[in-house]
C-alpha cells in the first residue's frame, strides 16, 4: 500500500517542474511534507466590535460607507485614500495607501469589510485589506482564521494555500495515526487526520487550539521517544567500556594542579567516574557557567581514561579553540607521560599523515581537534572517551560519527550555555546531566557597563587607563566587512579606528576569514602582551583564555543574544585582576534595552540563560540548526514545557515496557525509529 511519503510533489495537482524545484528548496518533496507544512501564524478575520479592539491592534470590522472618498496623490505613484465609514454607532476614518482604484467602489451605503490597524485616539483604521460585501458573492474570509505560511520565490501565499487544501482533499484519508491509542485516550487528543486539517483550516478558535495541542504533543512525544529509545538501547547493549578507574589516580592528579577544585567540579568528576566504570556507554552532559572550570573536569576524565589504557578525543567547533585546548592540556599533563596531539583541517598534509598514523598506532593518548576528527580516514587504536566541547555547535549525527570511531566509547559533552536543569534533562533526554555552578576561588565578578555611542571617548579613556596598568582589552564586532543591510560596526573598519585611537599601542586583528597561521600569530601576540588591544569577531566567543585581558568592549551589543553576550563577557575575568565588560549599544527596541539591563544586573549565567529563553525563545537559544534539537513545526520548548515534560514521562514509560519492542500495537512507532538516521546500524526489536 502506497504511503503519503512515497507520493512525490510533482504528482500533485498544479505542481509544474518549476514549482517542484521551488518546493524542493523549501524541503518539501512528498505529499506528506506538504500536509505537514504548517502555518506559522494566522490572519484573524473574525469580525469584532470597535469597543473590543485596543489601540494599535490589527482587527477586522464591518461598516457602511457614509462619506465621499478623498484621494491625495504624492510622488510618482503614491497615494492616500480616505473615507468615512460607520462601524456600529461610531463614524471612523478608513485610510488606504496606494489603493487609488478603490475610490470608484466607495459608494454611500455600500457595506464593506475592513482589516487593519486601529488608532483609537484618531478614530482611524489604516486598512491593509478590504472587501465589499455583495450579496451575490459572500466573503470567503469573514469570520475565519486564514493560515500564513513561509513562502518565497515563485511560491506565493494563495498558491501554497490552494496546494495544501487540494492535497488534503485528495490524500487526507491516507493520514495514519502514529500515537498509541492509550495516549490518545489518556489526553483526549483529536485524531491525527482531523488535527492536521484543523491546523490548516482552524474554523473556530477552539478547534484550532485542540488541533495544535494534539500536534504539539505528537512532536514532543516523538522527540522524546527518539531520545529515550536510544538511551534504552544503549543501556540494554551493555556494550560500553567498564574502565578500571582508581580514585587514587584522580586525587594524585588533582594534587598537581595549581588550584583547589571547587565542590561542583568534584561532584561532576565523581559522577563521570561512576559512569566510566559502568559496562554501558556514558552519555553525560556537563554544563557550567563561563569560567566554571569544565576544561579541568574534562582533563581529569581524559587522564583517567588514558590511565585505564584507552585513548581520548576532544572535539571543538573552531581551530582557535582546538589550539587553546591543546595548550591547556599540554600544561595540565606536564607532569605525566600523556601524549597530546592536534588534528584540524588546516594541518599540513605531512603533519596530518603523521598524526593519523600516531593515532592508529596508539602513540597519541589524547587528540584535540575540530570536525577533522570525524573524517573517514581517521582511526584510533583504542578510543575510550569522546569529549565534545560546546555541544550545541554539533548535531547528534556528528557526535555519533565520532563515537563510532571506537567500540562504544564513553561520551562527555560540555556546554557553557547553562540552561535550567529540569529543561536540560528534558531537552537532552538521552543524556545524564552534571552541573557546575561555582566559579573557581579568587575569580572576581566582572563589572558590566552599558554605554551609548555618544560616550565612546570615555570608553577609550577607560581602556587606556587599564592598559597603563599593564592590562589588555578585547574589542568585539558583529561583522567582518561592511554590509548595506546592517548598519553595524565591522571588524576591518574598527581595527583602523582603534589604531588611530591608540597610536602608541599595538592593536591586533582576529576574524574567521584569516588563515590558521594568521590567527595563531594574532592570538600569540595578544597572549604574550605584544599587542594590547585585540579587535575581533565572535571567534573569541568560547575557550580563548588570556588571564591578563581585563576589558572586553562589545560594539553594537544589541545585535547579540543574551547568552552570546554572556559568553563573550567570559573572555575576561579569568585572572586575579578586576575585569570589566563595556556594552556599546543604542538599542531601538524594548527587547534590546532589556538585554542590556539583564547583562548589567547579573553575572550568573543561569539567570542570563533563563532571561534569554524568555526573550528569544528556545529556537534561537539552543541554535536548533546545529544542536540536534529538532526544528519543531509547532512546539515551543518553553511555552509548551509542561507538555514536553509529560511527553518525556510517557516516552520513558513506554520504552521500558517489553511489549513496546514486540507488540504490533506499536509497529508504526518502531518503523518510525528504524527510519531515523540515529538508529542506523541499531537492532531495534
Walkthrough of the structure:
- By secondary structure, the chain is α/β, with parallel strands linked by helices.
- The protein has four domains: 60 residues, DNA polymerase, domain 1, CATH 1.10.150; 98 residues, OB fold (Dihydrolipoamide Acetyltransferase, E2P) (Beta Barrel); 190 residues, 3-Layer(aba) Sandwich (Rossmann fold); 156 residues, P-loop containing nucleotide triphosphate hydrolases (Rossmann fold).
- The protein has 24 helices and 21 strands.
- Strands 11-12-10-13-14-9-15 form a seven-stranded parallel beta sheet, with helices on both faces. A six-stranded parallel beta sheet has the order 16-21-20-17-19-18, sandwiched between helices.
- Strand 20, helix 17 and strand 21 form a beta-alpha-beta unit.
- The longest helix has 33 residues.
- The two termini are 23 Å apart.
Keywords summarizing the entry:
38% helix; OB fold (Dihydrolipoamide Acetyltransferase, E2P); 685 residues; seven-stranded parallel β-sheet; 4 domains; DNA polymerase, domain 1; globular; alpha/beta; Rossmann fold
Amino acid at each position: 500500500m502506497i504511503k503519503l511519503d512515497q507520493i512525490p510533489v510533482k504528482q500533485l495537482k498544479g505542481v509544474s517542474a518549476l514549482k517542484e524545484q521551488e518546493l524542493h528548496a523549501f524541503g518539501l518533496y512528498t505529499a506528506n511534507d506538504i500536509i505537514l507544512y504548517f502555518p506559522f501564524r494566522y490572519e484573524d478575520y473574525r469580525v469584532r466590535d470597535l469597543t473590543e479592539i485596543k489601540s494599535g491592534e490589527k482587527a477586522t470590522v464591518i461598516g457602511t460607507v457614509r462619506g465621499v472618498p478623498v484621494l491625495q496623490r504624492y510622488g510618482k505613484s503614491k497615494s492616500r485614500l480616505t473615507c468615512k465609514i460607520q462601524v456600529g454607532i461610531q463614524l471612523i476614518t478608513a485610510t488606504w495607501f496606494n489603493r487609488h482604484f478603490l475610490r470608484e467602489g466607495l459608494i454611500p451605503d455600500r457595506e464593506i469589510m475592513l482589516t487593519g490597524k486601529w488608532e483609537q485616539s484618531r478614530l482611524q483604521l489604516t486598512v491593509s485589506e478590504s472587501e465589499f460585501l455583495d450579496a451575490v458573492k459572500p466573503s470567503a474570509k469573514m469570520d475565519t482564521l486564514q493560515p500564513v505560511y513561509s513562502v518565497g520565490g515563485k511560491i506565493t501565499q494563495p498558491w501554497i494555500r490552494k496546494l495544501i487544501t487540494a492535497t488534503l482533499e485528495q490524500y487526507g484519508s491516507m493520514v495514519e495515526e502514529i500515537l498509541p491509542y492509550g495516549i490518545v485516550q489518556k489526553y483526549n487528543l483529536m485524531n491525527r487526520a482531523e488535527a492536521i486539517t484543523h491546523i490548516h483550516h482552524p474554523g473556530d478558535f477552539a478547534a484550532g487550539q485542540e488541533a495544535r495541542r494534539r500536534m504539539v504533543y505528537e512532536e514532543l512525544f516523538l522527540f522524546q521517544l527518539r531520545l529515550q529509545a536510544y538511551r534504552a538501547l544503549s543501556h540494554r547493549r551493555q556494550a560500553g567500556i567498564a574502565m578500571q578507574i582508581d580514585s587514587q589516580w584522580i586525587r594524585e592528579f588533582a594534587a598537581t594542579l595549581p588550584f583547589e577544585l571547587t565542590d561542583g567540579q568534584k561532584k561532576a568528576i565523581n559522577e563521570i567516574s561512576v559512569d566510566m566504570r559502568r559496562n554501558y556507554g556514558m552519555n553525560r552532559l556537563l554544563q557550567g557557567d563561563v569560567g566554571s572550570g569544565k576544561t579541568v573536569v574534562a582533563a581529569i576524565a581524559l587522564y583517567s581514561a588514558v590511565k585505564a589504557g584507552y585513548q581520548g578525543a576532544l572535539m571543538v567547533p573552531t581551530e582557535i579553540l582546538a589550539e587553546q585546548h591543546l595548550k591547556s592540556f599540554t600544561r595540565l599533563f606536564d607532569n605525566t607521560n600523556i601524549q597530546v596531539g592536534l588534528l584540524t583541517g588546516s594541518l599540513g598534509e605531512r603533519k596530518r599523515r603523521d598524526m593519523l598514523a600516531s593515532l592508529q598506532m596508539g602513540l597519541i593518548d589524547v587528540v584535540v581537534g575540530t570536525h577533522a576528527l570525524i573524517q573517514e580516514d581517521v582511526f584510533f587504536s583504542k578510543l575510550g572517551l569522546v569529549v565534545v566541547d560546546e555541544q550545541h555547535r554539533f548535531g547528534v549525527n556528528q557526535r555519533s560519527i565520532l563515537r563510532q570511531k571506537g567500540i562504544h566509547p564513553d561520551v562527555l559533552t560540555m556546554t557553557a550555555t547553562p540552561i535550567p536543569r529540569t529543561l536540560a534533562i528534558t531537552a537532552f533526554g538521552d543524556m545524564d546531566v552534571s552541573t557546575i555552578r561555582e566559579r573557581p576561588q579568587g575569580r572576581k565578578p566582572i563589572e558590566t557597563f552599558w554605554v551609548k555611542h555618544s560616550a565612546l571617548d570615555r570608553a577609550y579613556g577607560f581602556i587606556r587607563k587599564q592598559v597603563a596598568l599593564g592590562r589588555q582589552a578585547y574589542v568585539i564586532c558583529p561583522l567582518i566587512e561592511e554590509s548595506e543591510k546592517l548598519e553595524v560596526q565591522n571588524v576591518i573598519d574598527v581595527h583602523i579606528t582603534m589604531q588611530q585611537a591608540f597610536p602608541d599601542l599595538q592593536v591586533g586583528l582576529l576574524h574567521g576569514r584569516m588563515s590558521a597561521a594568521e590567527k595563531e600569530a594574532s592570538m600569540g601576540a595578544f597572549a604574550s602582551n605584544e599587542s594590547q588591544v585585540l579587535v575581533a569577531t565572535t571567534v573569541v566567543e568560547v575557550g580563548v583564555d588570556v588571564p591578563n585581558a581585563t576589558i572586553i568592549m562589545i560594539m553594537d551589543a544589541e545585535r547579540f543574544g543574551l547568552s552570546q553576550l554572556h559568553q563573550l563577557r567570559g573572555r575576561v575575568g579569568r585572572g586575579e585582576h578586576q575585569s570589566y565588560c563595556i556594552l556599546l549599544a543604542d538599542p531601538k527596541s524594548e527587547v534590546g534595552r532589556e538585554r542590556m539591563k539583564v547583562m548589567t544586573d547579573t553575572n550568573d549565567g543561569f539567570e542570563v540563560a533563563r532571561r534569554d529563553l524568555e526573550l528569544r525563545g528556545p529556537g534561537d537559544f539552543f541554535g536548533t540548526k546545529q544542536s540536534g534539537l529538532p526544528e519543531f513545526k509547532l512546539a515551543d520548548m518553553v511555552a509548551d514545557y509542561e507538555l514536553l515534560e509529560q511527553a518525556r514521562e510517557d516516552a520513558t514509560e513506554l520504552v521500558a515496557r517489553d511489549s513496546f519492542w514486540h507488540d504490533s500495537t506499536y509497529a508504526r512507532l518502531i518503523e518510525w525509529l528504524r527510519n531515523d538516521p540515529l538508529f542506523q546500524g541499531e537492532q531495534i526489536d
